[in-house]
Write a structure and sequence with these properties.
The protein has helices at 5-13, 48-51, 60-72, 84-93, 111-126, 143-147, 185-203, 228-241, 292-295, 311-326, 329-349, 392-402, 426-444; strands spanning 27-31, 34-37, 42-45, 104-108, 130-134, 166-169, 209-214, 217-218, 224-225, 244-248, 272-275, 286-290, 357-363, 366-371, 405-406, 408-409, 415-418. The protein has two domains: 5-55 and 328-444, Alpha-Beta Complex (Aspartate Aminotransferase, domain 1), CATH 3.90.1150; 61-326, Aspartate Aminotransferase, domain 2, CATH 3.40.640.10. Helices cover 36% and strands 16% of the residues. The longest helix has 21 residues, at 329-349. Strand 5, helix 6 and strand 6 (166-169) form a beta-alpha-beta unit. It is an alpha/beta fold. The chain contains 13 helices and 17 strands. Bound molecules: 4'-deoxy-4'-aminopyridoxal-5'-phosphate. 4'-deoxy-4'-aminopyridoxal-5'-phosphate (PMP) binds at residues 50, 110-112, 115, 138-140, 215, 219, 248, 250-251, 276. This is Acetylornithine aminotransferase. Keywords: Aminotransferase, Transferase.
Length: 445
Amino acid sequence: TTSTYLQDIGAKHVTKGLGRITGDAVMVRAQGSWAEFEDGRQLLDFTTGIGVTNLGHCHPKVSQAAANQCLSLVHGQCSIAFHEPYLRLIEKLLPIMPDPSLDSFFFWNSGSEAVEGALKMARIYTGRKGIITMQGGYHGRTFGAMAVTRSKTIYSEGSGPSMPSVFVAPFPFWHQLSLSPSAPEEEVVKKALYQLDLLLSQQINPKEVAAILIEPVLGEGGYVPAPPSYLRSLREICDKYGILLILDEVQTGFGRTGKYFASEYSGVSPDIMTIAKGLANGFPLSGIVSRTGITEKLKPGIMGGTYAGNAVACAAAIACTDVMKEEKVLENVQQRSKELITSLNKLRSRADIGPYILDVRGVGLMIGVEFASPSSVSTYDPNTIAGAPRNLASRVAKRCLEKGMLILTTSIYEVVRFIPPLNISAEDMALGIEIFTQAVEEIVK
Ligand code: PMP
């Protein structure tokens, strides 16, 4: 595309530290599953702004609720006074919590802030310092969140040292345990638990661990659902040693996996849960939810933030909870998920394409396709096929973009991730699958 005045501003004056999959292109408006660019391109958006616009861009009810709120109260400031949308949002969230004991809320702006707040709360509550995070986990780019992020070195490169007392256990993911994609779930779980066991006997005494932090479906790190039995074992270990279990549902929450929260698949209740992204469909809002007993130890003033729990963002989030019910969004996720997984498996069963696809995995509309292609980092990965084209995932994603669809990859493995809107129509889903199929055919051949 030809460079425009706006693109030139972006190219010259926006920090070089920001990477973008569309280069210097400028998005001007977006509606539902579609995003329009300054050059007139209409792109099918299978990124949802990284799992945020779950109800589609500019959902009329959500935008209207925000617009109305803009005319009555924009900034209440939570350390000055409660405001109505803050409390009404809690009223809406309480009945959908995965466990009724999760009844104490603090709203913030971003997922990173929520994670940092959760870690801080866990240290204060337990009086311990140790934090166990998972290999491949992504929790944000601010210092504390960066300290527990283990999906890619770029996020913390050159800026450390960051927060101390962080220990890393493998996520129950076959790659990390040197297994094959067809390894039985019990073997994956057994190996991951054995490594955690070693960590707790060789690296840090469990009595010094404040929290274990995990995404119920590994996001950035490769789109891998944690087996329910692994999460249940984590719960048992936490209970045995008085460790808090923090589930980061920033990406998985609010219907992304086909249930309101991914933890519902295992029935495991966290002590603290972090939420953001789909919570307000694009308005900056995150939250830390915990048992009241945990927040009772916090002195007033420990939590706060100028924009925390902004009234407009809370009003949008309230509308989201209504739309989820009124439009039966969870049912749509189940239906579209089946179509997507069936189509991807069909593609994988083809003689010409199959050998290049290592794995199709995920739940709901959080689906990853891993290619059997050597990536820039997995030089020693025994699962890749010798002679397969390198970096298939990023090349397929790039080809999708050329064909009119925005789609993302994950961190170090060759995974293309599907995160379309949760209320996507059957037609748009079929179109996305068609574009992806053509892109794979063209790149693999
Ligand atoms: N946790 C998870 C699981 C995430 O996916 C993300 C964002 N991708 C974050 C935390 C950080 O959220 P934010 O970018 O809003 O700071």
